[in-house]
Structures are given as structure tokens and as C-alpha cells.
Design brief:
Elements: H1 8-16, H2 24-35, E1 66-72, H3 78-84, E2 94-100, E3 107-111, E4 117-120, E5 134-137, H4 140-145, H5 151-166, E6 172-176, H6 178-187, E7 191-195, E8 199-201, E9 206-208, E10 211-215, H7 217-225, H8 237-257, H9 264-274, E11 278-280, H10 287-296, E12 305-309, E13 312-314, E14 322-324, H11 326-336, H12 341-345
Parallel strand pairs: 1-6, 3-12
Antiparallel strand pairs: 1-2, 2-3, 4-5, 6-11, 7-10, 8-9, 13-14
Length: about 400
């Protein structure tokens, strides 16, 4: 069975901290930074004087909207083989297009179903070869690029496919593997989650009782990867997306509740841990730039963090694949124009017809009470189906 790593868990913190626009100077800085041996002795210093004027990180892309492509890598070698079992080749079953608004007041994460039937363009590889364009499942793009053996080529083919399908420019990218995801969750101290019913999957090494739980890195990875088993829905990739988005929302809530984005020293320590075992564009390896963008998002309201799946419908020729609907074009057009996706998808208001003028009444007749109409209950959005934010549902609390 193919396994399904979760880049989503890193999306809010790592991808929101992604910066792009590396100049020659920035590239040189990254190269020099890699040559320096560093040591963090903070934990050895005990109680310290208060720093009265902490220096806040600078956002190098202030005033610019950013689109970051997050890819989960199922490359099974080294530490990842010990985590998920050794498997040859490169796969990616998790892809998120993350949009950060220019005013740093809105974050949107669009999950792209791996089984989307799409046109994959011809992709250039670093070994000089070029693949043929073809119609296939979306996640095939990562495998096509990886034929050279380079993760960066796999990322490039996925980026090219996304840009071709959506018309959205991708400013930066990140590929996260099993170990990177585990490091991120453990750096947070775990993710509190409400497990609504027992979940068990032998293949994913998952065994969770119902109730409030705090998932460590390995358990969170199993929760994200599991597809078949007890309490896991219909076993489809589409059904699993909602559960993964709830984990992402819980991660966002944990980051905000711990004020990680406002604590400069803590932010640097967290990003250092969270960015291990990842592959990125050059600017993503620059911790000061990452911290600057993350710090700029410290005041994003929870209601302005949106998770959604590309709007889809069944693919008539293959029940195991899906196609994007016309609403998908609305989603990506909103991203390209830096407009709110939820506002773009909202239905047009319906104008009520003018009320009829009531006939004159006998003032001596008793008034007839108007019938009482119960308000329609507002249903909570369904993760994986409807756009939602941490303000809409609290995935960390049961009941």
C-alpha cells in the first residue's frame, strides 16, 4: 500500500515562514550560513536578565503576497525507511498550495487531491532529459520529475503542473519527509486533538482511543497517513483529507496558543528544529528570513486562516479519480488576485421582493400574533469538503 505522509502539519509554521526573492547576496548568505558551526546554549544559562529591547525579525517580503507549494515526500531511505519501511522510488501524495496575503492578515491552504485527473505538462530534469506531457493522476507529476533521482526535479515538475493548471505563480516550495514532520510536531510538544471515535490501522501503526489526546510526532504521522482501518471512514484519499486538515487546524491553534510567532528567541529555536529533513528553494534555508515572515503573521486572526480542498467531482471514466469543478477556477483566480477565497466562493445575495402593503385593519380587532419561525440551524463546515478555519471548529476539544 502506498503511504501518505503529511506535509500539512508543517504548512502553517514552516510554509507561512517561507520567503522568496533571494538575491545574489541572500544566496551567498545561505551558502556561508551552511559553513558555520553553531551551538545554542540557551538551555544551559538558567535564569537570565530580562531583555528590554528584543529585536524583532524583519519580513524580507513585506507588502508582497506569497504562494508556497508544500509537498510531502514518501522517499523511504535512511531515517525515513526506519519510520515507514523501505520502498524504492519517490512518491508524494500530499500537496498544498499555501497563500499568504500581502497585508499578512490572511492565510489560505488549498489541498490538491492526489487522484485528481489532470494534464501534466512536459517537465525538464537536471540530467538533461524531458518527460512527455500526459493526462494522469496529479501525484504522478512528482514521480515523473524524480526519474532523475533528484527530489528537486520532482518538486519542479509538481510546481510546473500546478502553475499550468491554476495560472498561479509559485514563489517558493518545500518538500517535507517523514522525519521532518515528526521533528516539527515534537518541537511543538505534541498536538492536542479530539479523537471522536477509536481509530486503529495496523498498516499505519495507529491505535488511538476516543477522547482528548496529545499526538506526538510519530502518532501524528500515523494519524495523517492512515487510510484504512477502524474509525477511518470509507478508506478513500478524499475522505482522509478532512482528517488531515483537522490536524493542520489543530497545529495552527497550538502555534497561536503558545505565542510562538511573537517570541523571537522561541521562534528561531522552533524553526531550527522544524526545518530539519526538508528540501527547499534557497531562500527557505535562511532562518532569519523564515523567522521574519513568520513573525509578520503573529496578528493573523484565527478566522482568517482557511483550509479547503480543490472543489472536485467524480471522473466518469474512472471512479478512483476526480476532476476539478468550475469552482476550482474561482479558487485559483482569487489566489492569483490576492482576494479572500471564502468571499470569492460565497453565493451572490438574493434580493427579496418588495413586501406587499397590508390592507387596512379594524383597530378594534385584537392583534394576531405572527407565527414563530425557528431559525435554521447553522451547520458546522465539514473539513475536507467545506472551507473552514480554526474559528469555525475546535479540533482540539471533544464535545
Amino acid at each position: 500500500m502506498r503511504s501518505h505522509p503529511l506535509a500539512r502539519g508543517t504548512a502553517l509554521v514552516v510554509a507561512a515562514a517561507v520567503s522568496f526573492g533571494a538575491t545574489g547576496a541572500a544566496t551567498a548568505y545561505v551558502r556561508i550560513e551552511g559553513n558555520i558551526a553553531t551551538a545554542d546554549v540557551t538551555d544551559l544559562l538558567g535564569e537570565r536578565p530580562v531583555q528590554l529591547t528584543p529585536v524583532d525579525p524583519d519580513d524580507p517580503n513585506a507588502g508582497q503576497a506569497l504562494n508556497i507549494l508544500i509537498m510531502g515526500s514518501d522517499v523511504r531511505d535512511g531515517e525515513n525507511a526506519a519510520i515507514g519501511g523501505a520502498v524504492e522510488g519517490m512518491r508524494s501524495d500530499t500537496t498544498i498550495l499555501l497563500h499568504v496575503s500581502a497585508d499578512r492578515q490572511r492565510v489560505e491552504m488549498v489541498s490538491i487531491p492526489r487522484d485528481s485527473h489532470v494534464e501534466i505538462p512536459a517537465c525538464n530534469r537536471s540530467d538533461g532529459t524531458t518527460s512527455d506531457a500526459r493526462d494522469s493522476r496529479f501525484n504522478e507529476a512528482f514521480s515523473i520529475g524524480s526519474a532523475s533521482g533528484e527530489v528537486s526535479d520532482a518538486a519542479a515538475c509538481t510546481i510546473r503542473t500546478v502553475e499550468s493548471l491554476t495560472g498561479v505563480f509559485v514563489h517558493g516550495w518545500i518538500v517535507v519527509d517523514f522525519a521532518g514532520f515528526i521533528n516539527m510536531v515534537d518541537a511543538l510538544g505534541g498536538i492536542p486533538m479530539c479523537i471522536e471515535q477509536p481509530m486503529r490501522s495496523e498498516k499505519a501503526a495507529l491505535d488511538l482511543a476516543a477522547g482528548n489526546q496529545t499526538l506526538d510526532g510519530r502518532t501524528a504521522l500515523a494519524y495523517a497517513r492512515a487510510r484504512t482501518g477502524e474509525g477511518l471512514g470509507d478508506g478513500s484519499d478524499i475522505g482522509r483529507l478532512g482528517r488531515q486538515q483537522k490536524l493542520l487546524a489543530a497545529t495552527a491553534s497550538e502555534v497561536l496558543s503558545k505565542n510562538i510567532l511573537t517570541d523571537s528567541a522561541g521562534l528561531y529555536r522552533f524553526l531550527t528544529a522544524a526545518t530539519q529533513s526538508i528540501t527547499t528553494d534557497p531562500a527557505l534555508g535562511n532562518i532569519p528570513n523564515l523567522a521574519g515572515l513568520a513573525f509578520s503573521l503573529r496578528n493573523v486572526p484565527p478566522g482568517n486562516i482557511t483550509f479547503l480542498t480543490v472543489p472536485i467531482a467524480a471522473f466518469p471514466q474512472d471512479p478512483n479519480q476526480v476532476v476539478w469543478t468550475d469552482e476550482a477556477e474561482v479558487v485559483f483566480e482569487a489566489i492569483a488576485q490576492d482576494r479572500s477565497i471564502r468571499e470569492a466562493l460565497a453565493p451572490e445575495p438574493v434580493e427579496e421582493p418588495p413586501a406587499e402593503t397590508p390592507a387596512p385593519t379594524d383597530p378594534s380587532a385584537p392583534a394576531t400574533p405572527a407565527p414563530t419561525t425557528a431559525p435554521d440551524p447553522t451547520e458546522a463546515p465539514t473539513p475536507g469538503v467545506d472551507p473552514f478555519s480554526p474559528a469555525d471548529i475546535d479540533p482540539t476539544v471533544c464535545g
